[in-house]
């Protein structure tokens, strides 16, 4: 009996030990699993910008190839959220071009971002931006849980191509109401540099729900929740100026001002007007609305119509686009309706690109350009451009476009280091006299520029850039008809005269053409006021008969000064184009000096036996730009492009003050 009891006790003890060992082993396995959780790192593409991702801190996996310059990066060490996340990781040295895991943390916006070249990536400079981020190695911090799927500011995530699951924030459900996704935009702290700006009030919560564009707003330009143009503050959207010209609104100081009634300018104002407006991310929806209301006020003040001013709008951000052209709307009411439908494009403030677009596309006949009306472009800039404007502005001026620049809330002293092109305003405008520039300290003050702007764009006598090298000259051809030329060569010479003339805009108010033929004697073939169209001029040139005789070039110059250029208009550039094939029988020095003293710019073209020393005396200084020589008449056509180029280069090099 005792033996049986001992055996049973041994079995119980053995079972207990087995249970104990098995339990300990199971606990170890559980502990092991807890200590080593599996982390899912979402993958993103090279083109994903930090501003598109709402999460304030997250891990991500970048693919290979993000060193490519097409993935733009802005800043150094601290990057604007407009940057490619993976591109910034390569620039900072956290990754190489083979890709990998990174840790990203959002931080407040900076007053400016400086570009640099690092690790094979050239980052760019950028003005103040609302949100920034920092990239570090992809090692999770202890105690921090990172999202396994990133939240994007729009439902169509760029990372969807990589097979990533995305989600959107939703407002908390309210019983009895439908829930819909909205964009969550984080409002960072205001930077010190922003304090010097006149800024619009922002919503008090640090995180606000909004349905605005997913692009982040630059620092100092965050959108406001207050609707400036609601019916309680300003009702112009429901009333025309003629119906209710006395409606009032208030500026930031609380001072009331009246909306502008139509000004009596349309009777004497016939311009083709393009407003080039800022639709970049820096402006925000509320400021964009102020800008639109300003355009509406302009349209109503001008009284748009076929007999007066016509108006179109180009909006720029990353890229420009025509909102409507000159022939789309023929009255202020329709222009107003079109303006009210516009929405901001977002992106950078690429003013230079916008000016190039206007020069190439907007003022064309197909877009409604009337030809006889001055071309005016009013460019509106919030802060400063993110690209260079000088070259684009020069081409616009040379195309006859009068550029006005309105700069709203421009860079203060501490921000000027971030401006891409110093003195961009003076480089952009038609002339640097101050007539073409308007600086506005606050968007609340924009309305105060309305009347000065309207008066300036309608002052055709001061629209200096309407005059170009092609439409502002009296050109007198002095043609050698001596016996040495011969009938056949004389026809070739006339074809040269026609080829030069065809390059110019010919009318009573534009370029005018006259011609003198000479041998020993001189003959006025036609004067400046005889023909006022290009076809008539070309026909007149074709009808000139060959005279034959000697070569008295000096006397021909004096004759042209008396019979042609004495009747030139005071506001016209006087150009003499003299063509000869031999040495003059008389002195050319004194007549040439008289022409130079009277402001006649003389081009001397010699053929075959023409004397090079005489050509240089006749030509305006410097002779290398105003004298040409060809070995035979059949080669005259080759000199036409260079002559036109030199005429225009000389015209465009005039002082812009």
Can you summarize this structure?
With about 650 residues, the chain is of the alpha/beta class. It has helices spanning about 1-35, 85-90, 285-300, 330-340, 350-360, 390-400, 425-430, 450-455, 485-500, 535-545, 555-565, 590-595, 610-620, 625, 640-650; strands at about 55-60, 75, 80, 100-110, 110-115, 115-120, 120, 125, 130-135, 185, 205-210, 250, 255-260, 270-280, 310-315, 320-325, 375-380, 400-410, 435-440, 475-480, 510-520, 520-525, 575-580, 600-605, 625-630. Strand 21 (about 510-520) and strand 22 form a beta hairpin.
3D structure, described in words:
By secondary structure, this protein is α/β, with parallel strands linked by helices. The protein folds into 3 domains: 88 residues, LCCL-like domain (Ferric Hydroxamate Uptake Protein, Chain A, domain 1, Beta Complex), CATH 2.170.130.20; 191 residues, von Willebrand factor, type A domain (Rossmann fold, 3-Layer(aba) Sandwich); 181 residues, von Willebrand factor, type A domain (Rossmann fold, 3-Layer(aba) Sandwich). Helices cover 26% and strands 19% of the residues. It contains 15 helices and 25 strands. The strands form 7 sheets. Strands 16-15-14-17-18-19 form a 6-stranded mixed β-sheet, with helices on both faces. The protein has a 6-stranded mixed β-sheet with strand order 22-21-20-23-24-25, with helices on both faces. Strands 1-4-9-3-2 form a 5-stranded antiparallel β-sheet, covered by helices on one side. Helix 7 links the parallel strand 18 and strand 19. Helix 3 runs antiparallel to helix 4 and helix 9 packs antiparallel against helix 10. The longest helix is centred in the first third of the chain and has 34 residues.
